[in-house]
Amino acid sequence: MESDIILKVSDLTKWFSPRKRLTGGLFSKKVYVKAVDHITFKVRRGEIFGLVGESGCGKTTTGRLILRLIRPTSGSACFEGRDVFSLEGKDLHRFRREAQMIFQDPYSCLSPRLTTYDLISEPLKFHAKINEAERRGKVIRALNIVDLPTTDEFMKKHPPQLSGGQRQRVMIARSLILSPKLLIADEPVSMLDASLKSSILNLLLDLRKETHLTYVLITHDLSVTWYMCDHVSVMYLGKIVESGTPERLIRKPIHPYTQALTSAVPTTDPSGKSSRNLADKIHGEIPALINPPSGCRFHPRCPYAKEICKIKEPEVIGVGADHTVACHLYP
Amino acid sequence: MRRRLENFLAEHRKLSLAMLFSGTAMVITLTFLAAFAPYVARYSPVEIGSTLLGPPNSDHILGTDALGRDIFSRVCYGGRASLSVAFVAMIISITVGSFLGAAGGYIGGKLDRVVAVFMDAAYAFPTYIMAFMIAIVLGPDAINLSFAVAIAGIPGYFRIVRSIALSIKERTFIEAEVIIGAPTKYIVIHHILPYAISSIIVLMSMGVADAILAISGLGFLGIGIQPPSPEWGTDLRWGREVLLNGQWWPTVFPSIAIFLAVFGFNMLGEGLSAIFREQAGGRFAVP
Amino acid sequence: MQFLEIKDLKVHYQTLRGYVKAVDGVDLKQSRAETLGLVGESACGKTTTAFSLLRLLPPQGRIVAGEIFLEGDDILKKTSSEMREIRWKRISMIFQNAMNALNPVLRIRDQIIEPILTHEKVGKVEAVKRAEELMEMVRMDRSNLDSYPHELSGGMRQRSIIAMALANRPQLIIADEPTSALDVVVQAQILQLLKDLQAKMSLSMILITHDLSIVAETCNNIAVMYAGKIVESADAYTILRRAEHPYTKAMVEAFPSLDRPREERLTSIKGTPPELINPPSGCRFHPRCPYAKEICKIKEPEVIGVGADHTVACHLYP
Predict the structure, then answer these.
(1) CA of A87 to nearest chain C CA: how many angstroms apart?
(2) At B225, is the secondary structure helix, strand, or coil?
(3) Beta-strand (E) ranges in C31-95?
(4) Do B181 and A126 touch (CB under 8 A)?
(5) Chain C residues 143-172 within an 8 A CB cutoff of chain A
(6) Which chain C residues contact residue A250 at CB under 8 A?
(7) Which of B96-99's residues contact partners 24+ apart within 8 Å by CB, and which partners?
(8) In the 8-state DSSP scheme, what is residue A103?
(9) Is residue B161 a contact partner of residue B103, using CB atoms and an 8 Å limit?
(10) Rounded to whole angstroms, how far apart are CA atoms C176 and C207?
(11) How is chain B split into domains, by residue range?
(12) Which residues pair with A12 in a beta bridge?
């Protein structure tokens, strides 16, 4: 059902061109960092959609594009049927209420000058004409949702006085206070200690149950997508290489890169993974983003690369229910 | 309260504190004398007295000048002139410079680049040269002087606030503001300017010192505040003439006043600058 | 005789904000050619313990008590010049972020031969030859010797500092979060490399990390640290599947891992790790422990053996 789709990204592309002086000034050939290159995906209302990949794959840029923090080179991102990049005026303002983001580093995203109360209530200033008592009520409700104290003393604290876990929760409370429909979580737990990671992840899961929020979860950690996501898309050098449920992608991946990725992730299973043979699955390292490899971007590292892989980019094909892949091995 | 004072003193090095306190002391003394001139000075600064060029004595504690006017009084009222012109100029400079700098730095674009280039060019002129040029064109007068010093001061604030805006605008918390729908004006006023405050404060002290030097300098050249109005530089000019006769007091005291003012404000600025640097984190540090 | 034995190590820091008992009575044993994983969250004392082995603490830090026996020799009683013979000859270290350990203005070759020239009486030619062998050992092309650090990728930089650490054929390598700045695939390659090198050279290794999955993959034995103390220590299997200490159990159950069923909910530990300026009284974990009793608030638990090579410090035992 189309109304079920809350976010539809089509052919979204973002190429950065570094300034010419970096390349010597007289360089006539344009050099591009193809950070995100014609990606397409759909997010259903209420689901947790994972965008996973290593550094330079474009997942963070995608998150910023969806929230209109940067403009795309081409393509569209439709939120509830309307292209985010063509919104203006009141529609844009409403989008700013309905789509929020939580960030990786809870310190740098909270202004150290403001108190917890100010930080959480600030979004209300731009969207709701309510009086002081109502505002306070909303802040207290937000604090309750994220399991933080609602005492006056706590609300007067500044971020430097809070622990990492508390700051993360303050950031989540702040993003929830406008009751958004879509939450983009950019590496929400990668900077937290192990004992805090799980409590924040559980909090996000509980929130989804109570409020039917939709998440786009951006992470490099496959274990987090395993635990959290309903649907996962694996990105490599700006492209989506495979997309499906976590069970499919992690237990039975079919794209060579996904296979290498799942094979590389360490687990807490002590029965030893000494026979993982990573070298059979992938070699070399992620190439520089400037002028990526021709054809299939993964071909220099792929153990199954054929001639066609160097020349032609593979198209995205469906290979099962809710399962797509972009690889010349298929069909 | 006492605890905070103790923490404050413990946190900062002796040199910074010494600079801060000495500067503050000088500034407060001068400001006091200037502000309360009518009550502190026994004589009017323009009242022509009977004793011409009288040395310091119990009646005229700093002596009298060539027209028999009390030098102490002239120093106090002269302070008024210098300080008031400097402060008014400073307020104009800060307001215009900071807003242009914050907006330019955050919003960017071609207009900002063009303005920045002009500001850089203007910044190359020392305050008194700029003031000099404007004073010659507009005529010597307290208001014109304020105006001249104000214009000369704008690039300083512009540059510093703009560089802070440039360094902050890519930060995550600014992105967070955009995402929740904050308008640009709000972001500039509430999230960029506050981080410029400590730098502005430091610049203010140095700026006042600069301004006083400019005002006195112009006075000395004869194109500043005109006699009979009391002004340190102007008085210096006339005092020079009797210096070789052994009458040192009309020259020395205005000079000391200029020195204390400039040195005091500079010390204050240096002290504040060191203190802000030493304060790790805290409300005024740029995140 | 154990290869490495740490007895009752206490390292304290005098900081502006107070006196921090970063490491407060740590006992560790390690056999030759084994990998010992030292796990814990931030500020639990694991990095301080490692730096104490090399006696490379910052000026505010002091080893106030304890003994560290390397093959029977107490390192803490050695003089500076004796320590220089140990550092980078018998014990060397791999750091978390290679970019911080490499000199940006020197070529890789010059950085690798430096420890060789410092510690052994060989000429430059011989040293360069050794550097080339080391490159091969860490699976890097020799041409990289000519490069500067910024010209190499993250993985290659990490391999470079591994080569530097191996330069004088040490007996013990301390790896402090060697892969946390790397991508998953490179991380797996580096961990595999470390395992292979260890087998080939009979190296002993202490791997310090907060990541349980890494120690699961690479370590023979694991010691879990909390707030400056070792709370449990045993072989990897026991820690991961039969842990006894509440903290260890909670950590394992809170760790998202691909081998767990998806529906199984991660547990979380309430509260936050304590400030070591003013640690909790008694057992330092008691404010967060679901099994805390009265005695836990008063008396620190002693380390007791609960199985073959398995020690725990908890009032639930014996």
Answers:
(1) 36
(2) coil
(3) 35-39, 61-70, 73-74, 91-94
(4) yes
(5) 153-156
(6) 258
(7) B96/B150, B96/B154, B96/B157, B97/B153, B97/B154, B97/B155, B97/B156, B97/B157, B97/B158, B97/B161, B98/B157, B98/B158, B98/B161, B98/B193, B98/B196, B98/B200
(8) -
(9) no
(10) 6
(11) 13-43+63-280
(12) A39
A284 touches chain C (CB under 8 A): no
Residue B175: which of A69, A126, A174 has the nearest Cβ? Answer: A69
Identity of the residue in A246, A260, A267 whose CB atom sits nearest the CB atom of C185? A260
CA distance C243 to C259: 18
Q: Which residues contact B124 (CB under 8 A, 6 or more apart)?
A: none
CA distance, residue C143 to nearest chain A CA (Å): 16
Whether chain A has a CB inside 8 Å of the CB on C195: the answer is: yes
HSE (side-chain half, CA atoms, 13 Å) at A119: 31
Contact A278 C189 (CB under 8 A): yes
Sheet (strand C172-176) strand order: C91-94, C172-176, C204-209, C35-39, C221-226, C229-235, C310-313, C303-307
C-alpha dihedral sign at A170, A175, A179, A183: negative
Residues of chain C in contact with residue A194, where contact means CB-CB under 8 angstroms, are 41, 210-212, 251, 254-255
pLDDT in tens, chain C (318 residues): 788 999 999 999 888 778 888 898 899 999 988 999 999 988 888 989 988 988 888 888 889 999 999 888 888 888 888 888 888 889 999 988 887 789 999 999 999 999 899 888 888 899 999 999 999 999 998 899 999 998 888 889 999 999 999 999 999 999 999 988 888 999 999 999 999 999 899 999 999 999 999 999 899 999 999 999 999 999 999 999 999 999 999 999 999 988 888 888 898 888 778 888 888 888 999 999 999 889 999 989 988 888 888 999 999 887
Structure tokens at C53: 């082995």
CB-CB contact of C207 with C175 (8 Å): yes
A111 contacts chain B (CB < 8 A): yes
Minimum distance, in Å, between the CA of residue B207 and any CA atom of chain A: 27
Q: Does domain B13-43+63-280 have CATH number 1.10.340.30?
A: no
Which chains are adjacent to chain A, needing at least 3 Cβ pairs under 8 Å?
B, C
Helix (H, G, I), strand (E, B) or coil at C249: helix
Contact A5, A42 (CB under 8 A): yes
Reduced to 3 states (helix: H, G, I; strand: E, B; else coil), residue A63 is helix
d(CA C136, CA C133): 5
* Residue closest to A96 by CA, chosen among A74, A119, A125, A116: A125
Closest CA to A8 of A225, A187, A216: A216
C-alpha closest to that of A216 among A237, A203, A235, A230: A230
Q: Which of A199, A203, A268 to mutate to test the interface with C (most CBs of C within 10 A)?
A: A268
* C-alpha to C-alpha distance for A165 and C21, rounded to whole angstroms: 23
Chain B residues with CB under 8 Å of A122 CB are: 180, 182
Rounded to 10 degrees, the C-alpha dihedral B241/B247/B250/B252 comes to 110
Max intra-chain CA distance, chain A: 68
Residue in A with minimal Cα distance to C250: A195
β partners of residue A78: A8, A83
Q: What is the interface size between A and C, counted as CB pairs within 8 Å? A: 130
Rounded CA separation C155/A167 (Å): 32
Say yes or no for a CB contact (<8 Å) between A97 and B181.
yes
Cα distances (Å, whole numbers) of residue A40 to A13, A43, A65, A219, A238: 10, 10, 13, 18, 11
Cα–Cα distance list, B83 to A258, B130, B207, B232 (Å): 72, 19, 12, 11
C92 within 8 A of C174, measured Cβ to Cβ: yes
Contact A113 B283 (CB under 8 A): yes
Sequence-distant (6+) residues with CB within 8 A of B267 are B19, B20, B22, B23, B26
Which residues, other chains included, contact A92 with Cβ-Cβ below 8 Å and sequence gap of 6+?
A68
